[in-house]
Amino acid sequence: MKLHSLVTKIVVISAFICVICLWLIYSIGMDAIQLNRMGDSAIFEQVVENIWHGKGAVSNVFAATQNFIDRGYVFKPLRILDEIKLEAASAHERDMLSFHAYYILYAIAPLLKFVSSSLALSLMQTFSYFGMLIAASFFIFQETRSKLASFLFLPIIFFSPSWYGGIQGWFYPDRVFLLAGFLLCYLSYRNAQWWLIALFAVFVALINERAALIGGIFLLYLPFVSFKKDEIKQHWINILIGLILIAYAYIQKTYILSNIYYGGGYLPSSLSDYLSRFLLDGFAKNTLIFMISNLAMLLVSFAKPRLAFLSIAIMFLNIAGNVGGAEKVGWTTHYHSYYFPILAFSAAVGFISLYKKYLDNKINLYNTKSIIFLYVACLTITLVQFTYNFNKGNLPDINRTIAPFSVFDDLINNRSTGLTLRRAIATEFPLASSVSTDEAGMALLYDRVSVDYFPVSASTSDYLFIPCSRIQNAGITGNGVGDISQDWLLKKGFDGGNILHFDSIGKCLLGRFKN
């Protein structure tokens, strides 16, 4: 017996060490890729850096990108933009906390004492995804005392597009909710000490106002899942904390935030508006893919129907909403961060219920064969929908999936990585110079120069850093057809005959004529 206990401890400790190593390798590799990042990556890195240096949650990149969106420039081609006077942002930097209540960035900022901002954010995001897997496995083991049960559930999470695609996306504070939201559900469901639930509720609220809303809804709904006389006091505490979270979300949205996306448009204004969306290209198809992709977890959840209905209610924000399809099949985006931990928790509770009934042969309704069949069916659905999303390009391909590991190998063997190239590119720009560029350029340069969204400030910026494919007849090779002529460059004062090419990223650097 002692030998068996010792072996079990060794296996558990070894598995834990392996997960920690996998988390670190994946995070470091993701960070070192660098070249696949866009403007939002630059925003969050810049914000945590400014917080760490005492400037507050402000960002030059955020000011530039939001100005480009707010003024409607994003919808116009260059030939139209060239005919109007482009207005730069009214301020060099803009406060991120006026857009979303991302106070969690203040908690992340101290990590910059030890690592770079991009690595800190990569570590946080990957920790949330791996942590959710571990938390789900621990929860199932705690309830069933079965290592087999905790292992059998993991593929249903791992091969879910929301998990598999999300971990490969760019950092957003929203993604921290995967672990934090799951743990809040776990603690409240397990009737943990009220102060512990309150502590996690505060952490959830720090993520942003949407996390607070979803967390509050779960705490309010929980009494309808299980209402026992000896739990009445605990339920009232959960309800109170839930109401505080919802009130906080409402105050943020209504009185503090100035977010144009809260002005309407994402959710339908009426039933007829929602039905009309099915006439949009891909809306009906993407809705079907979204539902099938989450079907396995939903089926398991229905072992506890009340939790299943809560999951569907929260998923309805993605079902009815529309941001061009990303909210349904954009699995690498952050739009799946809020319903997924609730759905995964509901599925875990349903799985626990089924497993216990599988062990209890006295219950005729759930006989052994039907429960085994249900699990096999759910696992089959999981793998089939994963294969479909993978083959259709909705999920990252195999090269992108293994990239963090191959780049990590490059790092430890002193080979060049995207991080190396980013540093080399940055040195081509004098410190504190001004650059008009695209989002990818911002992600590479934000920490060295002042950036604006091309073509805003093109007439006054020191440099242009733009895709080479956009330049016509400017001495570049290849078949790219652009929309920027030599005459345009000359009119703006740039030397179109002296272009520095970065072929590996398809970018060109242009400076002004030298006197």
Structural account:
It is built from 23 helices and 7 strands. The chain has 515 residues and is an alpha/beta fold. The strands form 2 sheets. It has a 5-stranded mixed beta sheet with strand order 4-3-5-7-6. Helix 6 runs parallel beside helix 18 (340-359) and helix 9 (177-189) packs across helix 18 (340-359). Strand 3, helix 22 (439-445) and strand 4 (450-453) form a beta-alpha-beta unit. The chain is globular.
Keywords:
515 residues; alpha/beta; five-stranded mixed sheet; 23 helices; 7 strands; 60% helix
Can you write the helix and strand succession as a string?
Answer: HHEHHEHHHHHHHHHHHHHHHHHEHEEHEE
Fraction of residues in β-strands = 5-15%
- Helix content bin: 55-70%
In order across it, which strands form the biggest sheet?
Answer: 4-3-5-7-6
Characterize the main sheet: 5 strands, mixed
Low-confidence stretches: 475-481
What structural category do the secondary elements indicate? alpha/beta
H/I helix tally: 23
Shape: globular
Q: What distance lies between the first and last C-alpha atoms, to the nearest angstrom?
A: 85 Å
> From the alpha-carbon coordinates, what is the Rg to the nearest angstrom?
25 Å
Mean pLDDT across all amino acids: 89
Number of strands: 7
